[in-house]
Structures are given as structure tokens and as C-alpha cells.
Amino acid sequence: MKTRLGVNIDHVATLRNARGEGHPDIAKAANEVIKNGADLITIHVREDQRHIKKSDAIFLKKKIKKPINLEMAPTIEMLNFALKLKPKYVCIVPEKRKEITTEGGLNLNQRNLKKIINKLKSKGIEVSLFINPKTNDVKRSFNLGSNAIEIHTGSFASAFKNRNKNKIKTEFDKIKNCQVACNKTTMKFNVGHGLTYESATYLKKLNNINEFNIGHFIVGESLFVGFSKVVKKFKRILKN
Ligand code: PXP
Predict the structure, then answer these.
(1) What's the pLDDT score for residue 240?
(2) Residue range(s) defining the domain that contains residue 176
(3) Which of 98, 134, 171, 207 is surrounded by the fewest CB atoms within 10 Å?
(4) Annotated catalytic residue: which of 11, 44, 51, 152?
């Protein structure tokens, strides 16, 4: 199975918004990462639209040839927006207004989750749930009718930043167990959050990961060497 790379370009918009004008252009960034091998473009339209805005998502859909993976909170407002945008993929993520980034996986007890998943699927949108690396959450995602799961790799990635070998192994094993549980279902297995060259290389020891979604590191590293080098390097890492 070919492992796909989703590039999250939210932080190109963060930089653009710092000046409130149009530069750097997000469609130019999306097309640049696509030219260098990105398989899809991931964007998180937050409730406060602090980086990618709804208008950006509509603009991007017209300007790029690869699919959009829309990350969104499970709210009726975002559901209506997704039904209007009609991206190929939606990843449902938790959202707290004051958080700097998505701090953990979804709480699967939320009442309207199943309704939102069904509605998106009825319009031909493939749905993924962003969950913590817990096998029980994998099973519950399947029971909720999700087409895929994305494992929140934040703790695994932090263990690399802290050079904590034991923690790396413990967190890796959790993700591995989730993949085993996922393989017993029809769901696709995706990963994302906080990944770097080093942590993605380690995670690639797990065969048959469907998709990696990587954002902050790609945008940050590209300031030094450009999107072309960074995206190509990740593509080499993910190559089977
Ligand atoms: N996947 C999901 C579901 C996310 O919410 C995020 C962060 O927005 C990412 C992947 C990318 O994380 P990072 O920017 O840390 O690479």
C-alpha cells in the first residue's frame, strides 16, 4: 500500500494573517507542496478562523487539483460548511477555543457525532475521527460508522523532542496496538500531529499506514530550505 502524505498548510495562513494581507498566498503554497508530491491538502477551519478561514477553503477548492482534507469540530455550523464545501475528506477533531493546537483526540461520547458522520457520508464525503491512541476508541470509531481513524501522535512526537527512549517505545506500542485493532475493521489507518523527519521515520516501521498528516514542521522547516526539499524528503521517508 502506498502511504500518502497530507500537508497541513494552516501555518502559511498564520503567517499571512500576521499582516492581514494576501502574502504568502495559500493556493501558491498548496500548489507548491502538490508539485513536490503531497497527495492531499489538509486544512483546519477553526471556530475563530484564526488561520485558515472559510473563504480560504472555498478558494483552495477551486485552485488545487488534489483533494482537500477538512479538519473540523463536530458542530452543526461546521457540518453545514462541510456540506457546502464538499471536500473529499473530513477529519473530525476536538476543538477548544484557547488551545494553541489540537491537544488530544476526540471525546467519542458526544451526542451528535454519529449524526454528523452519517450526514457527511450521505454526501459522499469520507470521514475520519482524530482519536487518542486507545484501542477502545478505535473500536468505538468503527461502531460510530467512521471510514477512517487518525491517531493523535502528539505524545509520541513529544517523546522524541524530549529524547525519552522508553516513552518513545511505549507510545509507539500504543499506536501499533491501535493499528492491529483497526486492521480488524474496514477503516483506514492514518496518523498525525507533531511529526518531524525523525518521528515519522520511526513511525514508518509500521507498515501499511494509509496517511500521514504533517503541518507545523513542514512549514517551519521550509523557511530554511523550501517546500520542495522538505516535502520530497517526507515522500522518501514514507515510500514503502
Ligand atoms: N492531523 C490533525 C487531525 C491535526 O489536527 C493536526 C494539527 O492541526 C495535524 C494533523 C498536523 O499537526 P502538526 O501541525 O503538528 O504537524
Answers:
(1) 63
(2) 4-239
(3) 98
(4) 44
